[in-house]
Design goal:
Coiled coil: 10-121
Order of helices and strands: HH
Strand content: under 5%
Shape: rod-shaped
Domain Myosin tail: 12-121
Organism: Dicentrarchus labrax (European seabass)
Main location: cytoplasm
Oligomer: single chain
Low-confidence stretches: none
Number of strands: 0
Helix content: over 70%
Largest sheet: none
Protein name: Myosin tail domain-containing protein
Length: 156
Amino acid sequence: VNVGNEACYPQKLESRVRELEAEVEAEQRRGADAVKGVRKYERRVKELTYQTEEDKKNVARLQDLVDKLQLKVKAYKRQAEEAEEQANVHLSKCRKVQNELEEAEERADIAESQVNKLRAKSRDAGKVNTHPTFIFAYIYTYTYTHRHTHTHSQTQ
């Protein structure tokens, strides 16, 4: 019985050797696949690291651009405020000149009215001095008196 067992033993050993060789081959394939996977992930890590560095550089460039644009915006705001102040000053001057013009037109209308009255008086009386110097002095006196009285009455 022992002899038959020994005859089977080499076949069992060969079979076991083949099994172990198959397991070793399978393990070697898994190891090779694992090494390939590790290399693949290492490449991916390098790519992502490079991309991260590029992104950081781009963020720094964009931040620099944002800072420069913010400075420009501040400068434009300051220029706009200065222009608005100037516009207000010019508008105030314009209003003042407009008021002075209206007052001058009013005085001119009064003077013209006085000239017409004086001419009418001179035609009626025939004796009133119609020399331009006399008319100017008369109008100036009337206008100054009227303006002084008109201005004085406005302030009270």
